[in-house]
Amino acid sequence: MMRQIVTTKNGGTEVLEVQESPDPQAKPGDVVVNVRAAGLNFADIMARQGLYPDGPAKPCVMGYEIAGVVESVGETVDRSLIGKPVVAMTHFGGQSEKVVVEERQLFPKPESLSFEEAAAVPVNYLTAWALLVVMGGLRKGESVLIHNAGGGVGLAALDIAKHIGATTYGTASPGKHDFLRERGLDHPIDYRNQDWLPALKQMTDGRGVELVIDPIGGGHWKKSYKALRTTGRLGMFGVSTASANGLKGKLKMVKAAAQMPRFHPLGLLGKNRGVFGLNLGHMWHEPEKVAEWVQEIMQGINDGWIRPHVDKVFPFDQAGAAHAYMEARKNIGKVVLVP
Description:
The chain is α/β, with parallel strands linked by helices. It folds into 2 domains: 2-120 and 308-338, Quinone Oxidoreductase, Chain A, domain 1 (Alpha-Beta Complex); 124-281, NAD(P)-binding Rossmann-like Domain (Rossmann fold, 3-Layer(aba) Sandwich). The protein contains 11 helices and 15 strands. Strands 3, 4, 5, 6, 7, 14 and 15 form a 7-stranded mixed β-sheet that branches. A 6-stranded parallel β-sheet has the order 10-9-8-11-12-13, sandwiched between helices. Helix 4 links the parallel strand 8 and strand 9 (167-172). Helix 3 (122-134) crosses helix 4 and helix 3 (122-134) crosses helix 10. The model has no long low-confidence stretch (mean pLDDT 96).
């Protein structure tokens, strides 16, 4: 039997339970991985709150990314994989002691990373790569505003933007600024004690930036759009503003939906701006694309410019505390769960 973190129903952290379940078996083309570390993402929290439309029906096991060791393989899979350390993307179910994944979702774990650091790579760095490189087209000499710069995607985006040679601006609570400067953020902006938009405009001589990545959603996207310079792009990838339990969360989601901007083609034409959205969870039908991005990220790890940062590691039986820690925006970088 194996242990899993089960979201038993919608609600607060008390709905998370560690339960036992039969060990999974590998079908042809599949691999069973002994999980050493599993990433926690904001989508897991939104799913627990009942605010994540893509989440599976409750009770369910969340988790999109793991690092571990191959335990067994199904028919058609090379048996030499057994015993190899790997990183994998999981379509839910990652927060378990053992997971079954298709062989094509596996990548060798970089030797320079611990299992916890390796579990911090897939979701954050693929999201940041798609936002900055693939869809955002960020170039050397341009500038980028990274919202929630201290979060997992924020730090990943900072690594990538620095490598490109862009000027980096980032919103974060003041307690995170020193750390972010050490990681190479050019211009931290305190969003808690001041309005970040006038501050950004002042820093950029009123011009704004070429790229904004925004996981907050709702009316915040309108504000981020105003921060764009000519030829600027807004990348939208989450609605964290709606995060709350029960009815409060449902109401916040309705409010966020009502406040979302409507972008008219003529307005975009007139201002020379672009807007795009990203949902990594809707990329499962494009494994070749994702694999190509992973190769570039792995190369960045080997070359030393991609540096996943694990803020805190929680054992499975403290999953509720891990959720609460992340909900309170206390983390700088990744929160990881270990069996």
